[in-house]
Amino acid sequence: MGDSIHAELDRRCAEVAPQVVTWRQHLHRHPELSNREGATARLIADHLTSLGLDEVRTGIAGHGVVGVLRGGRPGTRVIALRADTDALPVTDLCGTDFASTAVDQDYPGGPFPVSHACGHDGHTAMLLGAATVLAGVREQLPGTVLFVFQPAEEGPPVTETGGARQMLVERALADPEPTMVFGVHLTPHPKGHLAYRVGNQYAASCLVKITITGRQVHGSTPWQGIDPMPPAAAIITGIGQLYRQVDANHPVTVSIGHLEDIGRFNIIGEHVTLWGTVRCAVESDMAEVQQRLARLAEHTAQAYGCTATVEHLQDVPAVNNRQEWLDAALPTLRRVVGDERVVETGGALGYDDVSEFVNAYGGLYLMLGAQDSEFDAAGNIVPTPGGRGVVPNHNPRFYLDDDTLPTGVRLHAHLAVDHLAGRIEPPA
Ligand SMILES: [Zn+2]
Ligand SMILES: [Zn+2]
User: Fold this and answer.
1) CA of 201 to the centre of ligand 1 (A)
2) Is residue 352 part of a domain?
3) Where does Mn(2+) bind (predicted)?
């Protein structure tokens, strides 16, 4: 295997590119929420089956799909290429003619509008493209490729299990075990740029549920009951002090995104429930922040005559890129996107449960820019004049540049081939 296979990969990637865009636009029009990715999984499984892979495993952790491609040459390495498949409860204002109008009527807490506001439609389409390309060169591959289509990256409903950890629990990647995991997330970085951070690329995360209990009463006579709403407000305000109790050099956020009560303006309810998320750039801060948050909530509630219970759910470890994996992969990354387009960036307080796979088997998770943006002199991402702007993931106006998708296909294909050939491997 030499430069000739790289040229062949590029040729095959160019061939499949129009289909990748078609898949992405189809998935964008038909998004599905976490743990409800049934039609998406069927599309994936049908295509992998049509490629004649050795195995197509379905129904993993809900709607997960894993395709197994055994190469035609002897080799012991196994690369897992990962894409997440779920969408978000966000209205689609991306402004294209394939914008989603989907509504999930039955989802817990819903109905919700549904859209691919995090770019997982692009991730899925790129990996389908890579599977097509690599299946086409299977006789030249010395090892095995696992195509890992993971559901529920954004987190399943709290009463359900799902996501990367559940795929591992169900031993989806146990046979054969990967020797490297690779994935990319599409982001507002400049089109075609590959951004990475050595160390924690993404933060450790958990979902927090705080239930404050008082005593229900008519809104006109609060003294005859115990109102749980004032301590809810005090807890939200008090969270602003938590930052000052953690090393200022360690980014932390605690956000209460959702407050739930009885739903009537003239009733003081029995309970108020706060739903939020905790993010820590330094993983070891998580336990301490959780403890301080629990203490704040319990004692604040007590001060108002209420009680509070605090539950930390859906904990996800940080995505950690190790220097030795990055060093090993850099030549390939630079060859695929161009030297000047591989850029080091800061970490982010987003999370991605790909960390479960990368932690278990080693590998890399990077960011591929897909918006009309550029770096200013200070390295900040700013809009390109006349472009569609810089729009963060999870925003209703989030968009992707379809012309960037073939670069993602090439990344998957080249990384896979180079790892299987022993060119990407950290020193033993
Ligand atoms: Zn997301
Ligand atoms: Zn995402």
Assistant:
1) 14
2) yes
3) 118, 120, 154, 185, 394
Total domains in the fold of the chain? 2
Tell me, in angstroms, the distance from the centre of ligand 1 to residue 81's CA. Answer: 18
Do 25 and 166 fall within a single domain?
yes
Using DSSP bridges, classify how beta strands 194-196 and 342-344 pair: parallel, antiparallel or unpaired: parallel
Owning domain of residue 282: 204-316
CATH number of the domain enclosing 247: 3.30.70.360
Averaged pLDDT for residues 107-132: 98
Q: Which ligand sits nearest to residue 121's alpha carbon?
A: 2
Which residue ranges make up the annotated binding site for Mn(2+)?
118, 120, 154, 185, 394
**427 part of a folded domain:** no
Which of 269, 291, 316 is at the close of a domain?
Answer: 316
CATH number at residue 175: 3.40.630.10
* Mean pLDDT value of segment 244-264: 94
Shared domain check, 153 and 114: yes
Q: In degrees rounded to 5, what are phi and psi of residue 265? A: -75, -20
Percent of the chain with pLDDT over 90: 97
Per-residue DSSP letter, 404 = G
Give the ligand whose atoms come closest to the C-alpha of residue 83: 2
Cβ–Cβ under 8 Å, residues 319 and 390: no
Q: Mean of the pLDDT values across residues 314-343?
A: 97
pTM exceeding the 0.85 threshold for the entire prediction: yes
Question: In Å, how far are 82, 242, 270, 298 from 158, measured between CA atoms?
Answer: 24, 25, 22, 22
Distance 28 CA to ligand 2 centre (A): 14
- Using one digit for the tens of pLDDT, what is the confidence trace for 198-248? 999 999 999 999 999 999 999 999 999 999 999 999 999 999 999 999 999
% of the chain exceeding 70 in pLDDT: 99
Is residue 341 assigned to a domain? Answer: yes
- Whether 2 has a pLDDT exceeding 80, the answer reads no
* Nearest ligand (C-alpha, residue 187): 2
Ligand 1 centroid from CA 404, angstroms: 19
Domain boundary among 283, 316, 349: 316
Q: Return phi, psi of residue 77, to 5°.
A: -80, 150
Q: How far is the CA of 251 from the centre of ligand 1 (A)?
A: 19
Distance 11 CA to ligand 2 centre (A): 29
* 377 CB neighbour count, 10 Å cutoff: 6
Average pLDDT of span 41-59: 98
